[in-house]
Give the backbone structure.
Amino acid sequence: MLFTDTVTIYNKIEAEGQTSWSRRVVHGVQWSDKTSKVNVEGQISVARYINVTFPEGKYEDLIFDAANEEDAIFKGEITDEVTGARGNRISDLLEKYPCSGRIVAVNDNSLRDRLKNIKVVLG
């Protein structure tokens, strides 16, 4: 089976001058990560790529916003609350849980005839 992973999605919500965070746990997705070394003008750097694929039936009612620089996805079920206070910021959770990343791109394949999915790229 391909879709056996669980992720937790945190979305930043701003309304009426207030900031809050939404947390959703989604089962039955595919987490894929890859680390590679890149040589750029004699400098070796490490590039990390994470893709999370949400099959049909798993992405409905979810928010994937690459424009919001603070929305993030974590591998596994995370119960931490994001409050904005030191130790409970989204950046703190990204450090605490290395299998995580901010949403940087969204590939919407939900209109295909077969294998409908949404692939989210994390950075």
User: Anything to note?
Assistant: The chain has a mean pLDDT of 93.
